[in-house]
Amino acid sequence: MKPAPIAYVRPDTVERAVGLLSESGGEAKVLAGGQSLVPMLNLRIAAFERLVDVTGLPGLRSASDEGSEVRLGACVTHERIQTGDVPDPSNGLMPSTASRIAYQAVRNRGTIGGSLALADPAADWLATMAALGAAIEWVGPDGPGSCPAEAFVEAAYTTRLGLYDVLTGIRIPRLHPDARWGTYKLCRKTGEFAHAMAIAIRQPGGCRAFLGATEGAPIRLPAVEDMLAGLRGWDASDAARLGEAMAADVAAAGRSLSDVHAWQSRTCLARAVAMSFGAAPPRLGRAA
Amino acid sequence: MARTASRNIGQSIPRLEAREKVTGRAEYVHHLRLPGMLYGKIFRSTVPHARIKSVDVSAAQALEGVYRVVTIDDIREAIPHPYYGPAFHDQPILADGKVRFAGEPVAVVLAADPHIAQEAVGLISAEYEELPAVFDEVEAMSSDVLVHDVLKPAATFPDLKHLAGRTGTNVALDYHLLRGDPEAGFAAADHVFEHTYRSQQVMHIPMEPFVSVADAADGRLTLHTASQSPSFVRIEIARLLGWPENRVRVKVPYLGGGFGGKLYIKLEALVTALSLVARRPVKVALTMEEQFFMVTRHPCTFTIKSGVNKDGTIVARTCKVVWNGGAYADIGPRVTQKAGFTSAGPYDIENVEIHSYAVYTNRPPCGALRGFGAPQTAWAYECHMDEIAEALGMDKVAFRRKNLLQNGRPQATGTIVQDAALEQALDQVADRLNWNEPLDRGDGRIRRGRGIAVGFKGITAPTTSVAIVNLYADGSCGLYISTVEMGQGSDTVMAQIAAEVLDMDAAAIKVVHPDTDVTPYDMGTLGSRSTFHMGTAVRLAAEDARKKIAELARELGLPEGSNLPLPELFRRKYGMQAGNIIGTASFIPKYEKPDAETGHSRNATPFWGVGASGAEVEVDTETGHYRITKLVNVADVGTALNPKLVQVQLSGAGIMQLGFTTTEEMVYRDGQLTNGSLADYKIPTLLDIPPEFINEHVDSEQKDGPFGGKGAGESTTIALSPAIGNALFDAVGVRLTDLPLTPEKIFRALCEANGTPLAGE
Ligand SMILES: Cc1cc2nc3c(=O)[nH]c(=O)nc-3n(C[C@H](O)[C@H](O)[C@H](O)COP(=O)(O)OP(=O)(O)OC[C@H]3O[C@@H](n4cnc5c(N)ncnc54)[C@H](O)[C@@H]3O)c2cc1C
Question: What residues does the FAD-binding PCMH-type domain cover (chain A) (predicted)?
Answer without folding.
Answer: 1-177
